[in-house]
Amino acid sequence: MFSWKDLNCEHKDLIHDVAYDWYGHRLATCSSDQYVKIWDMDPDTGEWKMSSSWKTHSGSVWKVTWAHPEFGQILGTCSFDRTAAVWEESPPGTWVRKTNLVDSRTSVTDIKFAPRQYGLLLATCSADGVVRIYEAPDVMNLSQWSLQHEIPCKTTCSCLAWNPSSPKSAPLLAVGSDDSASSSLPKVFIFQYNESHRCWIKVESFSHVSEPVHDLAFAPNPNTESGYEVRLAGQYDDHGSTVWRVCWNVTGTILASSGDDGYVRLWKCNYLDNWRCVAILKGDVNKRAIPNFKSNNMKL
Predict the structure, then answer these.
(1) Does one domain contain both 120 and 197?
(2) Are residue 219 and residue 238 in the same domain, yes or no?
(3) pLDDT of 239-258, one tens digit each?
(4) Is the peptide bond before 91 cis (omega within 30 degrees of 0)?
(5) What is the pLDDT of residues 200-242, one digit of tens each?
(6) Last residue of a domain, which of 191, 223, 255?
(7) How far is CA 200 from CA 146, 152, 172, 277, in A?
(8) 141 and 48 within one domain
């Protein structure tokens, strides 16, 4: 059974993103009020308490992301103010801006740290249609980040995702677009790093995705081989509205989606390789999860 904790985030404007740390014991939120807030879970009571709150940008903060804990307590943020920033907690409860990334000429729409096997890499994408890959050559000096690659996508970029299961020699990066000007252009691209050419190469584009894309997520699967095949496994309209976020559980067996209908829906693949909505969570702490056995809005 699912349980809820009602968290008053105390933001003064729209909340655009929430992110758990690696262990799920810390939570970061960001908002149009230009603030980021950090919440820590009390291990004894399970209650969430705010430990930090600070102004991070001069515009709306779109995304916040945690680096792997082996690199320390590190956050990345991106904003409408055309910048991305890296923050480090030192001492506990105090977050210090270590660098400000100012290469974009338009709003920076997403930011993600790479899986730890690639080192301390950071990817950003922006409304000008460029994905940028940064690297911290010395993990002990987070004030120094070098721009390693710029990947032109030729369309507005809205979101990105690293594949956590791809081999160290050939990382994969997916990029989504929310450009609604042309429905004929692909909205999802996959890029792979080519070690011999030392550059990122577009290896896939999804022609069957024509609507604006707001989020992407690779399912974790550590046993995946180096090859891959892209196919449409399912398409669903259960939310009946814009879907803003998708997220996998740690085993890659359950997918959560949230939409403008105010619900979080949990999806699971059955023995016939068909995805079904197995539970619906309402944004109301007084209501329980609703098992769903009737969902069959599948378009393959």
Answers:
(1) yes
(2) no
(3) 999 999 999 998 999 999 99
(4) yes
(5) 999 999 878 888 999 999 998 866 655 677 888 888 899 999 9
(6) 223
(7) 16, 10, 9, 36
(8) yes
